[in-house]
Protein 1
Amino acid sequence: MNDYQISAIGHIQSPYKQKFAIPRQPRLVPQAKAKLVFSADFNREEFVRGLDEFSHIWLLFRFHETADKGYSAMVRPPRLGGNARKGVFATRATFRPNAIGMSAVKLEGIEYLNGQLSLLLSGIDLLDGTPIIDIKPYLPYSDAMSDATAGFADSRPETQMTVEFSPQALAFIAQQSHYPDLHAFITNVLKQDPRPAYKKQQDGTQSYGMTLYDFNINWQVNESHNLVTSIENT
Ligand code: SAH
């Protein structure tokens, strides 16, 4: 009686092609646009009728990439520098029993194109291919709590990181027109300082790479300065 079977109602198409550099919560990088593509059983306009009256929605999803890696009772939240430990249920860690995630995201629109129903979303923190298990409208009168307190995660994580682009990176951005927000998108992803906590404590220049959409992006970090060295097609 305590085991359940859950099936995805759809999947996410996201610019984030690997876990590294995805923001740790939704809405931190508003330029992150995604599509929720409904599975065949739910590919009917009736399922979302009325949803266009809402500006934001809750997504419940499966941390599918790490779901088979298990969980432990205590985790080290990145914002505590990777040192202090908290109970897994006191955090939004991905490694948790049942591997279920939840994100409140902006609903930009509903699309029904060539027989495929999709939701257009922004501000997402989800990996490409993430299975969605439920969708609910965000209800400000109940979900937004102005008196809420949040202990070790009381405010939006702020960094002092600056982001600069090499001439090659700027030229690459300029020669494409498909993603008008690309410069701001990369800037805001890097401003989050996606490095693991132990790397932030190291001196010297560090090199990193990530894939956003179908672009390989390389950058270097020195203290609080990011330099995007190159952008190439994958
Ligand atoms: N807002 C969610 C997610 C918080 S954790 C919640 O509170 O439940 C956010 C991290 O989840 C991201 O930084 C990314 O690294 C990771 N992530 C996103 N989609 C994932 C997926 N499908 N599988 C595993 N990890 C994922």
Protein 2
Amino acid sequence: MQIRSLAGALLAAAALFPVLTTTATAAPVAEAPAAAPAADTPVSRNGQLHVCGLKLCNQNNQPVQLRGMSTHGIQWYSSCLKTASLDALAYDWKADILRISMYVQEGGYETNPRKFTDMVHGYIEEATKRGMYALVDWHQLTPGDPNANLSRAKTFFTEIADRHKNKNNIIYDIANEPNGVSWAGIKSYAEQMVPVIRAKDADSVIFVGTHGWASLGVSDGRNESDIINNKINATNLMYTFHFYAASHKQEYFDALSRASNQIPIFVTEFGTQTYTGDGGNDFTWSKKYLDFLKSKQIGWTNWNFSDDFRSGAVFKQGTCAGNSFTGTGPLKPAGVWIRDRIINRNL
Ligand code: IDC
């Protein structure tokens, strides 16, 4: 069934964008939108995930490290999420996971819940067709207290979980980056949201952002002990950590390192540059982090899969207007580096 639908997707892609299959380009790999996609996908190999101790495990109870990309805000960069780009992510980059970043404010969900919920439904289907995990990111940011959007979150996740409950590739991230709120406030929010999702999708893995913009509290002058001493009362849940390698160095790394021995962690966002998502890349610190995440089998999604002008957007400006996303040609330096870390599992 999966093979058929993937083949169908390919045919559709070829029909829509014949240029991809017929035009010779400098990089041969760029010609194949999705050469032999396949029965063998991250989701077909791993199935329904669950939290096993401190790790994320697959259907055979083996730890699995997922690697993939976060979209930019879908209210701004939906042009970067089309057949050719998603094919490139799945079949050229060989990503395991797509994080669907739906802002709540800043022109996002709150402005048109129907429209944004439908967009997320659509991107979930696109990830599913290609055998990738779909991480549904409730991208609250300003205001930073997730409780401010509690009733919206309940409405949104009830519909998402109800529609997709029979899929085995959905992960729910109920708070992107809580800020200006105590850990206790986030815990209270999570303990209200988890039952809402589980009432529809009982076996789902749920992520929740930590305090201080998902810094395990460090950006608030606190640390992971707030969480370890007051864990969320729920199973199958992971705590998220974000870092921007040019900004967040030893103190953040140390907190991650300590916390990873105590609580299950997933890195739902990181950049190789500063926390603005811009500026020079620090590949030395990025490598230090990613080597560590590999050693712990902590999964990650990089910010971000767009052609925004900032250095952290993987594509060069203007790329998303076209249909050439494969290879390194369309990528900024951060994109080249990240794609390599996704393709090469031995890195
Ligand atoms: C940035 C975007 C930028 C947008 C800004 C405001 O790159 O275009 O104007 O958000 O929302 C985060 C956030 C993420 C940020 C990213 C880079 O989760 O939304 O994106 N970042 O600044 N946390 C740390 C860094």
Protein 3
Amino acid sequence: MGKKLIVQKFGGSSVANVLRIQNAASRIAGCKKKGASIVVVVSALGNTTDKLIELANKINTNPSEREMDMLLSTGEQISVALLAMAIHKLGYEAISFTGAQVGIITDSAHTRARIIRINTDKIKEALKANKIVIVAGFQGVTLDQDITTLGRGGSDLTAVALAKELKADECEIYTDVKGIYTTDPKIEPKAKKIGLITYDEMLEMASLGAQVMQARSIEVAKKFDVPIHVRSSFEKDSGTWIIKEVKNMEEVVVSAVTLNKGESKITVSNVPDRPGIAAKIFNELAAKGVSVDMIVQNVSHLRSTDISFTVNKTEAKKALKVIKKAARNIGAGEILVDTDIARVSIVGVGMKSHPGVAAKMFGVLAKNKINIGMISTSNISISCIVQKKFAEVAVRALHDSFGLAK
Ligand code: ASP
Ligand code: MG
């Protein structure tokens, strides 16, 4: 084709109402006018997906996952059609497709399906006919023609996967913020927009609570080296580029501070201290599909110990049920659940080569009289669990101490 090919993804907030759909349409048309080939991926309007989930739960508190996918995929089908109509109104040619129509083939793990392959023929044909192609995000189809969805926030994955498959020059993620910030500007007004960030840092930030992009989509972008540009759908300024490597990145020790209030802490007390016990507990959790995050085992006293771990708040109930049974079987004691926790983390590839970052973080928290409940580290992040009421203070103090403020 020779022309520049751009994949543009518009998130739910960017198409939340008629005005915003029209705004998205004129941005897309403006880009088309400059001569690019454009494939657009759209999410459901506003919080449609949440509303559909609520509705399903009113009908059946334990809905079939296959039917859930049938239901949720309708959200994106509405947005692609409306966006196509808005583009037509501007005098440009556009055509909308569902995930199934453009051959986004997935496995059959309903509500969290993985993309196996994408047949891009239909898209390429429409592009050749000079049309703007609009694809429903977040959905695919199995080889048996069952509709699937790719997990919450999955439109990002659709966009990245299409960008990879079509060898796009750019993958733009349009959203309601200007890009990736050094921390949440709602918590710290002095937060700065980051110009360039690595896949690894973004991945770490996403898994630690930054909600701008779906973590899986960044994994895929990293794997296939798809450069991503996260930017505002309401402003012209460029946003944040997510790429493989940032020059001079070693000079920056900490790139961002994140906060996650979405976890609960479960403590199993008086766990017998002998080989195989931890394996038993965590195997049971894994078997029931509960993913565990931080784990801390206390120093053993009198041949028993306490094990604490965190899980996603939404999985706490399920985890508790599993743990109660497991605790009985292994002869452990009381189980405590603490929902009053927050995880505050610092992220930066630079910390690999700078000693003393953890000590500095703990010092900042101590100076602010904030007690640390649990600690965990990766090679580019350090997380502390603190009491929820101190979370924002901790974020601001760390953001300031690591020199991130404007
Ligand atoms: N509409 C879906 C969700 O809310 C997918 C997305 O927005 O990316 O999770
Ligand atoms: Mg969304």
